[in-house]
Amino acid sequence: MLSLPFNALLLALSFFGLSTAATTTSSPPASVFTYTNDNGNIGGGNQSFVFALNIDQSTSDVYIHMSAPAGNSWMGVGFGSVMQNSFMFIAYPSSNGTGVTLSPRVATGHSEPSYYKDIHCNLVWEGGLPNSNEVTKEGSASAMYLDAVCHNATKWSNGELNTGASASKTQPMIFAVGPGGHGPSSNLQSDDLSAGLVRHTAYGTFTMDITQALSKDSTTAGVPLPNGGPNNSTYTLSGASTSTPKSDHDPAPAIHGLIMCLSFVIIFPLGALLLRTLNRESLKSHGW
Ligand SMILES: *[C@@H]1O[C@H](CO)[C@@H](O)[C@H](O)[C@H]1NC(C)=O
Ligand SMILES: *[C@@H]1O[C@H](CO)[C@@H](O)[C@H](O)[C@H]1NC(C)=O
Ligand SMILES: *[C@@H]1O[C@H](CO)[C@@H](O)[C@H](O)[C@H]1NC(C)=O
Ligand SMILES: *[C@@H]1O[C@H](CO)[C@@H](O)[C@H](O)[C@H]1NC(C)=O
Ligand SMILES: *[C@@H]1O[C@H](CO)[C@@H](O)[C@H](O)[C@H]1NC(C)=O
């Protein structure tokens, strides 16, 4: 008789143990975009850019993992094919240089994206997420890492992401990183959510399968874990297209520079500059 409660306790503990193991090893449903440059020797796991997405349909909370080479002044991803009207996750080193600041931003009209105070984001630290919210400059893990949730973030002042029955399998997305290399432009360190950004010199577009990133409720929602397999902290492409980033510079040197330095970035304001870039590139390729 006396042993029964004890056995019940053991049973309860083992259930607790099992469920703990389950939550730390199974990733929320996710779509994962990765970009790896040709020589790929900069960035976490040698990847130049990673963006992984999970969305809780019940709360519209958006969970993200993002990483880019540590030398870049900022990194960003937005919903939409251009910056205008896009909701963007922009991250940069915090004032102490080793943490990360996440600034949710929206660009209206032709102005550069500004801090969007109506959506609140929190950084996330959790088991299974390596180097969360750190800027690491050591060795092959050298990168800026972001793990975060933005609450109620599928609708903003001038746009909306469909996460219902007609969620897109090819949602247009943009990504960019701020100038890397040397000089003041690569030294952004700030806790200010409205920190000024130096415009990028190149940017990329890709598409994401939103349907693959949806959780019905908070029991399965969260920051996507690395999906590179057992004991592998790498994120691998899943539910997303590949991308060929474009550059704002003269195409040949820029592409060369991109491969050599991984300093690819976007243009602010995108509207006018995107057109300029495309025109210039199409003129060049026409010439060739
Ligand atoms: C990254 O690339 C370098 C050189 O190509 C290689 O030595 C290193 O093992 C790679 N690191 C990872 C984590 O794959
Ligand atoms: C740097 O700042 C971040 C917050 O931005 C904080 O989480 C981290 O602990 C700080 N690191 C050090 C070494 O103080
Ligand atoms: C979510 O945001 C929308 C505006 O985009 C607002 O109308 C709604 O009340 C918010 N929901 C919650 C739970 O805060
Ligand atoms: C981790 O997974 C990635 C992608 O599948 C692979 O390229 C890499 O070699 C793996 N790394 C290790 C250490 O197994
Ligand atoms: C993963 O690592 C753990 C601890 O190092 C080890 O026990 C386990 O066998 C590894 N699993 C695989 C599939 O390599």
SSE layout:
Blueprint: H1 3-25, E1 31-35, E2 49-56, E3 61-68, E4 75-79, E5 87-93, E6 100-106, E7 114-115, E8 121-123, E9 135-136, E10 143-150, E11 155-156, E12 159-160, E13 171-177, E14 202-208, E15 214-215, E16 246-247, H2 251-261, H3 270-287
Bound molecules: 2-acetamido-2-deoxy-beta-D-glucopyranose (5 copies).
Strand-residue proportion: 25-35%
Assign an overall shape.
globular
Q: What is the number of beta strands?
A: 16
- Name of the top-level CATH class of the largest domain: Mainly Beta
How far do the termini sit from each other?
88 Å
What's the tally of helices?
Answer: 3
The secondary structure category is: alpha+beta
Protein name: DOMON domain-containing protein
Pfam families: CDH-cyt
Keywords: Membrane, Signal, Transmembrane, Transmembrane helix
InterPro entries: Cellobiose_DH-like_cyt, DOMON_domain
